[in-house]
Amino acid sequence: xxxxxxxxxxxxxxxxxxxxxxxxxxxxxxxxxxxxxxxxxxxxxxxxxxxxxxxxxxxxxxxxxxxxxxxxxxxxxxxxxxxxxxxxxxxxxxxxxxxxxxxxxxxxxxxxxxxxxxxxxxxxxxxxxxxxxxxxxxxxxxxxxxxxxxxxxxxxxxxxxxxxxxxxxxxxxxxxxxxxxxxxxxxxxxxxxxxxxxxxxxxxxxxxxxxxxxxxxxxxxxxxxxxxxxxxxxxxxxxxxxxxxxxxxxxxxxxxxxxxxxxxxxxxxxxxxxxxxxxxxxxxxxxxxxxxxxxxxxxxxxxxxxxxxxxxxxxxxxxxxxxxxxxx
Length: 328
Known about the structure:
Blueprint: E1 2-6, H1 11-22, E2 26-31, E3 44-48, H2 57-64, E4 69-72, H3 83-103, E5 108-112, E6 124-127, H4 139-154, E7 161-167, E8 170-171, H5 178-187, E9 193-194, E10 200-201, E11 204-205, H6 206-223, E12 227-230, E13 236-237, H7 238-249, E14 257-258, H8 260-277, H9 287-294, E15 297-299, H10 302-308, H11 316-327
Parallel strand pairs: 1-2, 1-4, 2-3, 4-5, 5-7, 6-15, 7-12, 8-11, 9-14
Antiparallel strand pairs: 10-13
Helix pairs in contact: 1-6, 2-3, 3-4, 5-7, 7-11, 8-9
């Protein structure tokens, strides 16, 4: 089968492309920069395109021509940027890929979403994939990803099965988001816990997220129209997760705690300062981040595992060992 993977410069996107290529599928990766996959051990074709740029629509159309499946990971992530820029990539880009896939007769479409599309700031305890809600989601990223997921699932039909997969806090060796930011702050002495660090959260080791996305492609004809949250299903406290990541990298863990109310207030000030000065770097704290670090969010994985015929093959403890080995 010919599989198109957008956003293959991310750790997760690269892993998905490699997994399909390793099992013998014909893989096309599509993203703005170089994926680093061309000329590697697998046969991968690369298309350089910005899915959110109208001038690249023809490149997108050519990339999906003849494909049997599309895994759409390309997105604008993070906190910095205008609402319009997030919408251009996450909503407009998704619609461009959906339209091209439908016109090309693609039978399976996996929209890579986020649990934040259904997170309005309150704790999520043992829930499933609640409906995406752009009006309640927090921040430009979550709101635009919610709209993108709704559009994707609305495209589900007999000719093209669409499934939305929401991997939760993906991490592993080479991760520059969760792991990279924690380690950078620990090394600079700026790492602190919000509240007492007792909030339980789910995370997902990257290889397990890759397996789940491959399974979603294989099971798409049976799951069209559904959204599924994917995680390791091993809730741990924020304090434990941060401490284990720091220990794996050999850096000191957090030495102080910031009260939740103070963190949210400070996050609001930082957001305003970043917006007024139009900084492009990621802010050290935001209201959304303070909420995420102080509220529980873990998910019932029983339906996900049954629907995908999938289960995590690497436990969190094994993942921490692999992370430590990568730093050694």
